[in-house]
Amino acid sequence: MPAPVVHFEIGCRDQAKAAAFYRSVFDWQIGPGANAAALDIAPAGEGIGGHFTSLGHEPHHYVTVYIQVADIAATLEAIVAQGGEKVVGPIPLPGGGAFAWFRDPDGTTLGLSTPPG
Q: Does pTM top 0.70 for this prediction?
């Protein structure tokens, strides 16, 4: 089965300003995230969930989609073997699961995730 895109992340400097913009334009339901640096975005009906993140350092402005895989370490090895690059991770998440960032051979940064449990 192909690995699905399961989450997105929008980097920003000002979470309140970003949340107000996206809430107003797209009617997104936005609430507190799992940590102080995140605001969760819940889709109303169709679509995948995501979050805003204010890292406090570069990169400030980015969008990342996350691809769900069974084994992040093995997937990162395959990415490197195919000419990609590991950027960060795997990093465990507080609620379970983990994430990582990688660059494809063209330089595009994407994320990997595993579900909790």
A: yes
Q: Tell me the two tokens of residue 5.
A: 């895109």
**Percentage of residues in the chain having pLDDT higher than 70:** 89
Confidence at residue 34, expressed as pLDDT on a 0 to 100 scale: 60
* Strand extents, DSSP E, the chain: 5-11, 29-32, 38-42, 50-53, 62-68, 85-92, 98-103, 109-114
CA atoms within 13 A on the CB side of 54: 13
State the CATH class of domain 69-117.
alpha beta
Do 1-63 and 69-117 fold alike per CATH? Answer: yes
CATH 2.60.40.10, domain 1-63, yes or no: no
Tokens of 2: 């192909």
